[in-house]
Amino acid sequence: MTENNNSRQDARDAGDRLVADHASEDPFAAAFKATRMPMLITDPRQADNPIIFCNAAFCKLTGYSNEELIGKNCRLLQGPETDPDAVSRLREAIAAEKDLAIDILNYRKDGSPFWNALFVSPVRDISGTVIYFFASQLDFTNIKSKEAELARARHLAEEEVGMRTADLTDALRAKTTLVHEVDHRVKNNLLTIASIVKLQARMTENDIVKRTLTSVLNRVEALSTVQRKLLNDEEVGQFDVADFANTLMIDKIGALKRSDIHLTTDLHAVVVPATKASPLALIINELVGDAIRRGLSDGGGEIHLEIRRLNGHFLIRVVDTVTPVDVDKEEAAFSQAMLEACLKQLRAKIDRVVKGHRTDVTVTLSVKD
Amino acid sequence: MNILIVEDEVLLAMELESEVEGAGHLVVGTATDSREAIEIIDATSPQFAFVDIQLLDGPTGIDVGRYLSAKAIPFVFVSGNLKRIPDDFAGALGAIEKPYTVNGLQNALQFLQIIIDGGHGSQVAPPSLVLSPAARATVAA
Predict the structure, then answer these.
(1) In a domain, A217, yes or no
(2) The domain spanning residue A114 has which CATH number?
(3) Statement to judge: residues A135 and A258 lie in one domain
(4) Does the residue A155 lie in any domain?
(5) Domain assignment present for A245
(6) CB distance B15–A183 less than 8 Å?
């Protein structure tokens, strides 16, 4: 007790001496005392580096009186939630006699915490010996709590975004599964329709029935080929006409089994919306089919299919040089009706030029429509 | 060749059978689920198989494919959704996409026969047949 009193007396004496060195009208001392910034001075040459001087702003901040503070080490401001790392850094800076600016949680006399932006700096005499430590404090609890509030708000927002993203991902997955399921059913149904027609064509002994069913099958298969091409690409809803035409022609060449009929192509990528796929496919199917029908005589011949863009239009051209044979009138009329319906649907124009054995059919339509 | 057809739609299986037999092959059995398929494989040791992926007991065509592959029986998948096929094609030579056309199927069959007979060279697969990476490498060799 006595010893404690002695050391506090020493600290007070040191403070008095410090002040005595300055005339009472010293503006620096007056400023130190009067400033609204909490400040203090400690004496490292005394045991436990006690506070020897502090200003009114510091007393106001901490709730301690000047009496209670003089002779105490600054650690009396520390409390249960004070970060031990911050305390170590402070201790190391003082031991190393270096400046330090650090944010530290401190406690008032009544136990309430505040965030302290602390600055500590050694004061040296002419010989370079550290004779004091100067410390200033700044209560930034308000800023700190706003930071925490912002962080909390951001965290909540992030959680919300995460939840919505998960919901959307689930919804997208469900929708994709549904699209694939529907696509699968459409494909199976088309193949089932084709199978029913084929089955009946196989069973009938009537040539006319057989021919009629084969004619139906031909169109169903053109639509089947379209359906295969629709959902396979990255760009769902787009239809590559050239790709379709290539597959169609290879199918037809295989079906002909006629080395004297040559099918050739000149195909350039033309992509159209999926809604136009079916009528376009049927148009190409009818044009090529018509040329093949007319050319099925012994003479053979050449059939050429061309697909390209031309001056903002889309062009389908079938040129054949065949020795014409009489075609089934009904079949030809049906094909013509199919062709006209599809042309009307696409608002396409058709131009047919016949010169001798050469037939040149051109279909043009606007790509934008 | 002795051929197995694994397909849950009976009408489609019937028509495929007619096509395959029309091309001069013998269909040794048709199965609508994986259990039936494996029974027929064990009982008849087919030389080739067409395997749909979605069967009566679920998407078990892949399992049937792996079973065939383990027995070194060549086969192709026949499916409306080729995206369901694993990257290694479960050992399949390739896949025929539904809805196939009569000519597309015949072209595919003809090409498959060439591969099975060990022929290759300047052969290009028809658009109706998607070759597996392994089969592509064999054909290109």
Answers:
(1) no
(2) 3.30.450.20
(3) no
(4) no
(5) yes
(6) no
Q: Enumerate the residues of chain B whose CB falls inside 8 A of the CB of residue A184.
A: 54, 80-81
Tokens of B56: 């009566």
| Phi, psi angle pair for A291, to nearest 5° | -65, -40
ipTM of the complex: 0.84
Contact B33, B58 (CB under 8 A): no
Q: Which of A36-50, A246-260, B16-30 has the lowest mean pLDDT?
A: A246-260
Average pLDDT, chain B: 91
- Dihedral of the alpha carbons of A267, A269, A274, A280, in degrees to the nearest 10: -20
Positions of E strands within B1-141: 2-6, 26-31, 48-52, 75-79, 94-97, 129-131
Do the chains contact at B12 and A192, CB–CB below 8 Å? Answer: yes
HSE (side-chain half, CA atoms, 13 Å) at A143: 7
Number of domains comprising chain A: 2
Q: What's the mean pLDDT in B110-133? A: 82
Q: Is B128 within 8 Å of A227 when comparing Cβ atoms?
A: no
Question: How far are the Cα atoms of A106, A204, A333, A335, B65 from residue A282, in angstroms, in the given order?
Answer: 84, 26, 15, 10, 36
Measured on CA atoms in the order A242, A244, A246, A252, is the torsion positive or negative?
negative
The residue count of chain A comes to 369
Distance CA B12, CA A364 (A): 38
Q: Do the domain assignments include residue A170?
A: no
Measure Cα distances from A44 to A4, A129, B13 in Å: 17, 10, 98
Q: How far is CA A284 from CA A66, A219, A311, A315, in A?
A: 101, 11, 20, 11
Residue of B nearest to A221 (CA): B101
From the list B14, B98, B127, the residue facing A187 with the nearest CB is B98
Q: What is the pLDDT of residues A163-208, one digit of tens each?
A: 999 999 999 999 888 888 888 889 999 999 999 999 999 999 999 9
**Residue in B with minimal Cα distance to A190:** B99
Contact B98 A191 (CB under 8 A): yes
CA atoms within 13 A on the CB side of B118: 0
| pLDDT (0 to 100) of residue A4 | 60
Containing structural domain, residue A22: 2-139
Q: Is B83 on the interface with A (CB under 8 A)?
A: yes
> With contact defined as beta carbons under 8 Å apart, do A325 and A348 qualify?
no
**Radius of gyration in angstroms for the set of CA atoms belonging to chain A, rounded to a whole number:** 48
Query: Pick from A139, A166, A181: which residue ends a domain?
Result: A139
Domain B2-140 has CATH 3.40.50.2300: yes
Please check whether residues A244 and A131 belong to one and the same domain: no
Which among A195, A251, A255 has CB closest to B11?
A: A195
pTM for the full predicted model: 0.67
Compute how many other C-beta atoms are within 10 angstroms of the C-beta atom of residue A21: 9
* Domain positions in chain B: 2-140
**Which of A139, A160, A177 finishes a domain?**
A139
